[in-house]
Amino acid sequence: MPLMATTTPTVPLSSARETKPPSATSIATGLWKGRSPAAASDAVWVPLISGVLIVVAGALSLATGKPLLFAALGPTAIMIAASPGHTTTRFHNVVVGHVIAFVCAWLAILLLGAGKAPSLLSGQSIPVVRVWASALAVAVTVLVQPSLRAYHPPAAATALLVTLGVYRTNWQTAVSMLAGVITIALLGEWFQRVRLAERRASR
């Protein structure tokens, strides 16, 4: 019985579906599909403005040789960028909130005699007296801020920087930290107004 030749069916090249790699536009559209334009713009605005605020404070710190940029300004910058118009991000709240935290930390150190204890940067274990001073400073800060209409949670980090001995409680440090806070608060106030105006215009 003769063998019948078998052929494999083929698809014409012209009818074959061509696959192309997704473009950057389609990827971005997919990422933000179903999300509001405000959410998409916030994803750019918040990290951008947070970074700008820190860069400005850092540039002034480098120019003056003073600690205008310190750790507590990080969460303050993020709150300003992410929550424009919120009560806790007002100029008054930011500045007075950090001042209250610094004063409460300074008083806690004096009352508990923690000033001579090794600091967090000494490489040793945190002394118990500094732990108690930190707890007291944060608690009093949270207690006093609302009564002065200056509630600003990131200021608690300022209290810890002082009670843990990262910064010394002297006038030079206090003035430098205050200058950094005022810089962030002033520039942040302007950015908040710009952002709120953009949101009103987009409605």
Quaternary status: single chain
Which stretches are low in confidence, meaning pLDDT under 50 for 5 or more residues running? 1-6, 13-19, 22-32
Radius of gyration: 28 Å
Structural class: mainly alpha
Mean pLDDT, to the nearest integer, reads 84
List the secondary-structure elements in sequence, H or E: HHHHHHH
Shape designation: globular
What's the total count of β strands? 0
Per DSSP, the total helix count is 7
β-strand amount: under 5%
Q: How would a textbook summarize the main sheet?
A: none
| Distance N to C terminus | 82 Å
**Helix content class:** 55-70%
Kindly list the characteristics that best describe this protein.
203 residues, 7 helices, globular, mainly alpha, disordered N terminus
Q: Would you give an account of this structure?
A:
The protein has 203 residues and is an all-alpha fold. It is built from 7 helices and no strands. The radius of gyration is 28 Å and the shape is globular. The termini are far apart.
Please summarize what this structure is.
By secondary structure, the protein is mostly helical.
Write the layout of secondary structure elements.
Layout: H1 24-31, H2 37-64, H3 73-82, H4 91-112, H5 128-147, H6 155-163, H7 171-202
Helix pairs in contact: 2-3, 2-7, 3-7, 4-5, 4-6, 4-7, 5-6
